[in-house]
Each structure stands twice: as C-alpha cells, then as structure tokens.
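Backbone-to-sequence.
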C-alpha cells in the first residue's frame, strides 16, 4: 500500500486522512459537488469530485469511487463509517479491482450484516442471543412462527420486537405489545425494510424494557482477536446514540468480564480482521444478549482510544497492509474514564429534527484532556443532504466525575451561533442526576419526565430579540451613514 483513498466525508474522513499521512501514505479525498469547499478535501494530497450532492449519486456510487481510485492511482480504500462501510458488494468490488479494502473481508461483512446469519454464527460460539425467530420471508410465516414460539418457550413473550434482517439504525423496527398488533407491525416493518435496505426479510425477538446498550471494541488480524474494553451507549434518541462513555459505569466486574469474553468469542467465530464492534443489550436483571456486530470503525471510537492509548485507525491500516497484531490482551489496559458527546444541528424540543442552514459562528475552547473531531469551520452551511453533526467531542480524566465536569465546562464555553443545536440538551444530560449516578437506559431520553422546564430570563429573551432584529431587519447599506457610524462599523468585530 502506497496511496489510500478515503471513501467518505466530514470528520471521519479528516481523521483517517491525517493518520494515513502520519504513517507516510499518500492520500486521496473524494467529494460531492455539494462538498467542493468541504474541509476534508483539503486534508488530502489529492482530491477528486465523484458526483452530485445526493449520496446515491456520489458517496454511495461504487463505480464513481472505483473510477476515482483508478484515476488517482490509489491502491487502497478506507470506507470510514456509514455510506459504503458495511456494503459487502463494495468490499468485493474493491478486491476485484486489485485494491486493498481497509476493513474485514466481504464475506464477513455480509454474514455479520445479516442479523439472522450473525445470530447463527455467534450462537455456535456460545454467545447468548435474545429468544426469537429465524428469517421470515412472509407475513404468514412470521405469524405462524411467533405463535409457535409463544406456546413453546416461556422466555419468549410480549412485548416483542420486529426487526429488519438487512440493516439497523432503527429502520424496519417495530415494537409489538399484544397479539392483536402483530400483523400490522410485521407488515409495516417489512415495508420500511424494503425501502431502506431493499430487503423485506424480518425476524421477531423478545423486546427488553428499559435495557442498556453495551458494545465491545474488538481488534482482529484474522487469527487472533483482542478487546479494547467496552463502551456504554445507552443514551439514545431514535435509536441513535447521543452520549457514550468508556468504561461503562453500570457493569459489575463479573458482568464486564462475561460481556468482554462474549465479544471476543463472537469476533473469533468469523475470524474477524480489522477494528469492529460487538454490541449487546443488557436487561435490568443483568442478563445480556448479542445484538449485532458493526464491521467498521464506530463514530464513538475515540473513547476507547482515550482509555487504552491505542490508535484504532492506525491498526486498521496496518492489519489491511498485512501486519499481524503484536499485542496480547495483557498489554491492553484501561486507564481513567472517557465521555463523548455529539454536537448536532437539531431541534431537541421537536422530535430531534435536523436544522440545516447557515452556521454563523463556531468556536471551541482550548482545554487539556479534550479532543474535538470536526469538519466544520464557521461561517459555513450545514447541508440538508448529509448528517447534521457539527462535531463529536470526547474528554478524558482520571475519574468519571472529573471527566463529567471537564466535558460540562468545555461545552459551556463552546460558542455556536446561527442554528438550533443540541448543546443545551447535552448539558442537561451531563447535569442530570441519572447521569451523575451512571444509571440510565436506552429509552430514557425519549421520555419527557427527566427534563427540567427551563424558562429563559427576560434579559436572555431581550438579547435574542435584539440579535434577531440586527441580523434580519436592518440593512445598513440601504441608507447613508455618518462618518462616526462608518468608522464604528469598520472597527466592529
């Protein structure tokens, strides 16, 4: 490998490009027409446009990315996360083209990307899975399978969860609380799955109320697999993570060892090679079950890097380049605590709807023990075509409480203007009693009961009204200014 093309955009593209350049590789960035001024394209030695703004015509267009690699003479492709990162056909096409795919083998991506096949693989390795059905090709087959399981297994009971076999992120997922709701929800899940993943196959499993979401970071070279401990990822909205931390504050030492061992066993079952994540769901009685495996780098990987000191992107590249793991599990130690938050342009008071538009001003403070991964420099526009994440911010400290305080103070000093963001929402979480105690679950954030009703002061309302008036109502260019006014405006920041 001499030249790496990064088939992605935004902060993860920048993260990969910088690491690759540190390792001595030449780099290529790809960008859409919408991203012609995006920061990631200027981080690479070369950049090449791969199509229009729509992802389907650019970042998801396999032939365009392969053509870009050919034109720039890149010999390896790193997919990052999202887009084509878990597309087994893409990984196979990269190999057919004579290039190195920086990630696991195509057949492993395909196997672990299909939730039914993944369940079968880990069950053989002794990893516990949630009681449920196999792949269900039709509504009638699903109804029959569920009714049979309700009669024969005591641990299979309502509420149930209908899930798409071919994807995740909350799409094709429906909660069923009674037998009368079963048929309608199966039909809806199949319809959603077909639109999202072009695969209407679903399966049904027991739904755990108020569970925790724990994921194990693994690293494999095809022969051996190591873990980099676990992450607590239970704070979610719309099945998407908001705050992550490592290690989990909710696990006992005994439960942690069992989950870590299960994560390694699941990765070994498919002879995993590269960085990956094995995800588990944990009940309020500490029963845990395999959820899925993500065969790529995760958004929240920095918290694992903070506590272990291991660069996951660097190891992904080394493993793809044929370098075996020279670490043993005893070499990997966890030190301190790390918390990550995702700063989004979204309205947390109205369904977490994205808020694309003009970002006038963004400034992060300089702070020891805090890392900002971002591709945004103000003034800029947050595009409606892509994920509205402004930055992910991760902090480290010797203890969890010190880390919480550090993240809280950093966020308070972060300045972001021009768009509605989730900054205040993140601060509410960090200040909440449930977070201070480390006791929370995946459904908590979507319950309105935990949030305090904050009434802005008259001073804040007046300042906001004045700011809006000055930005939108006054046009100084439309009228003559006195000499002192011209001088004042010229000196204003």
């Amino acid at each position: 490998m001499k030249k790496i093309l990064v088939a992605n955009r935004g902060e993860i593209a920048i993260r990969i490009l910088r690491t690759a350049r540190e390792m001595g590789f030449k780099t290529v960035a790809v960008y859409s027409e919408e991203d012609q001024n995006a920061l990631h394209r200027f981080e690479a030695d070369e950049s090449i446009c791969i199509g229009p703004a729509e992802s389907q015509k650019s970042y998801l267009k396999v032939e365009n990315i392969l053509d870009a690699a050919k034109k720039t003479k890149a010999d390896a492709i790193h997919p990052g996360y999202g887009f084509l990162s878990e597309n087994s056909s893409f990984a196979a096409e990269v190999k057919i083209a004579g290039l190195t795919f920086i990630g696991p083998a195509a057949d492993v991506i395909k196997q672990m990307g299909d939730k039914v096949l993944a369940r079968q693989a880990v069950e053989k390795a002794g990893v516990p899975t949630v009681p449920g059905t196999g792949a269900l090709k039709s509504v009638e087959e699903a109804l029959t399978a569920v009714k049979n399981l309700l009669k024969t297994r005591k641990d299979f009971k309502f509420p149930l969860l209908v899930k798409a076999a071919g994807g995740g992120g909350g799409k094709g997922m429906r909660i069923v609380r009674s037998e009368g709701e079963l048929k309608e929800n199966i039909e809806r899940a199949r319809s959603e799955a077909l639109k999202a993943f072009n695969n209407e196959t679903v399966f049904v499993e027991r739904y755990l109320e108020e569970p925790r979401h724990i994921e194990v970071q693994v690293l494999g070279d095809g022969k051996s697999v190591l873990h980099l401990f676990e992450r607590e990822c239970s704070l979610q909205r719309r099945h998407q993570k908001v705050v992550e931390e490592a290690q989990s504050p909710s696990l006992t030492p005994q439960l942690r060892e069992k989950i870590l061992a299960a994560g390694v066993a699941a990765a070994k079952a498919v002879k995993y090679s590269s960085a990956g994540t094995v995800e588990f769901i944990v009940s309020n009685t500490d029963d845990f079950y395999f959820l899925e495996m993500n065969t790529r780098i995760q958004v929240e990987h920095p918290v694992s890097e903070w506590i272990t000191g291991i660069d996951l992107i660097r190891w992904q590249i080394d493993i793809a380049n044929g370098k075996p793991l020279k670490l043993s599990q005893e070499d990997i130690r966890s030190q301190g605590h790390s918390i990550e938050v995702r700063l989004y342009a979204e309205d947390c008071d109205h369904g977490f709807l994205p808020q694309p538009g003009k970002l006038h001003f963004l400034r992060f403070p300089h702070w020891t023990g805090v890392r900002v991964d971002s591709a945004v420099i103000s003034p800029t526009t947050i595009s409606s075509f892509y994920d509205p994440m402004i930055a992910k911010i991760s902090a480290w400290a010797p203890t969890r409480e010190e880390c919480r305080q550090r993240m809280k103070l950093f966020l308070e000093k972060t300045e972001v203007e021009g768009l509605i963001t989730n900054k205040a929402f993140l601060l509410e979480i960090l200040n909440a009693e449930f977070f201070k105690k480390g006791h929370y679950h995946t459904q908590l954030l979507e319950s309105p009961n935990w949030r305090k009703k904050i009434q802005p002061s008259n001073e804040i309302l007046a300042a906001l009204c004045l700011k809006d008036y000055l930005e939108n109502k006054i046009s100084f260019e439309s009228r003559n200014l006195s000499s002192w006014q011209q001088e004042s405006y010229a000196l204003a920041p």
